[in-house]
Amino acid sequence: MAKPSSRQELIDYCLRQLGEPVLEINVDDDQIDDLVDDAIQYFQERHFDGVERMYLKHKISQSDIDGARSNVVSSTGVKSDTFNPQSSGVLNISASNITIPNHGLITGSPVYYSFGAGSTSIGIATTALAGVGTTSFLGISTDSVLLYAIADNRNQIRLAASSGDASSGVAVTFTGSTGIGSTHFIATKSEFTEARNYIDIPDHIIGINGIFKFDDNTITQNMFSISYQIFLNDVYNFSSIEMLTYSMTKEYLETIQFLVSPDKKVRYNKRGNRLYLDLDWQGVSADEYIVIDCFRVLDPAENEKVYNDSFLKKYLTALIKKQWGANMSKYTGVKLPGGVELNGRQIYEDAIRELAEIQQRMTYDYELPPLDMIG
Q1: Beta strands of 181-261 (E only): which ranges?
Q2: Torsion over CA of 257, 262, 263 and 265, rounded to 10 degrees?
Q3: What residues contact 213, with CB distance under 8 A and at least 6 apart?
Q4: Which residues lie below 8 Å from residue 313, measured CB to CB, with a gap of 6+?
Q5: pTM of the predicted model over 0.70
Q6: Would you state the torsion angle of the CA atoms of residues 180, 181, 182, 185, taken in this order, to the nearest 10 degrees?
Q7: Helix, strand, coil tally for the chain in percent (to 5)
Q8: Model confidence pLDDT, tens digit, residues 225-280
Q9: Are 217 and 291 a contacting pair, CB within 8 Å?
Q10: Distances in whole angstroms, Cα of residue 129 to Cα of each of 46, 51, 188, 242
């Protein structure tokens, strides 16, 4: 059938284009199914006829608001400086400080002291440390111990048992034991938080242009607005107002509206299926609606004319031809009955060239061009 209206009819059409049933197309059914899925995905993601513009409505729930107003730790960054207390000038017992070039710390910064396997802790005067208790060692086993930095200068720090001690300049006192081993660490941790300010998007949505505003700006959008009053009182009679003046007034009002109520910022990535709404969630109430301006892929199961698209038919035929050539290239030199010899390598190379031409035509003829940035 020259006008396929189903998945199987499209497969049969492409196989006939390659010579079936005169020739046996040596491609497995599972391979063909994979190629059909690949071709439809390429068609939906790149071809302007593979999507349709939609306006989807979403009702804001209280769970959406609660998630957007709360912060959770998304990742933790660790910076670790290694020092050797056995080295001359690194550990100053009398001053109870440690030399770490360009440490980047400020007084009160939380730091974590630890030492590597085979090493032992630096000795200190008996002190109560958080998470450890009263001890005469700066560290315990190979676990990290929370301390607080006192920055003497850019290259030297002292260590305090609490943030209050650090602010007061009260440092832990080192004793004569410098510990064993050359691998001792002073590490800092940085936590990065993010709000759950997103809504989950259905998988069939492939792109989002933006959302319609939550609120109605009184400058231009209702029956009491300036814009409405101009139309009501003046524009019905073109002789009563100069169009240039009206146009300049409209641009001025639009500028005010942009400053007072700018467009809501959104972020979206198809592979994550999350629409991030970067707005002030403190002013959002449950049961409000947003309208999402988006593009939805055409499902061939519901839109059977997709199977008859000229680009899709040519593209799938070339994909099957490429797979056929790849399969046959493993049997170079094998002759068919009658002395005919299939050149799998030639079939494969021809398919590669055809695919390149088809994909180039997609770029030039079928893709929507990107918006130009002017200004």
Answers
A1: 184-195, 198-200, 205-211
A2: 180
A3: 261, 263, 264
A4: 4, 10, 13, 14, 17
A5: no
A6: -80
A7: 35, 25, 40
A8: 555 566 556 555 555 567 777 778 778 877 877 776 666 788 888 888 899 988 88
A9: no
A10: 61, 62, 17, 79
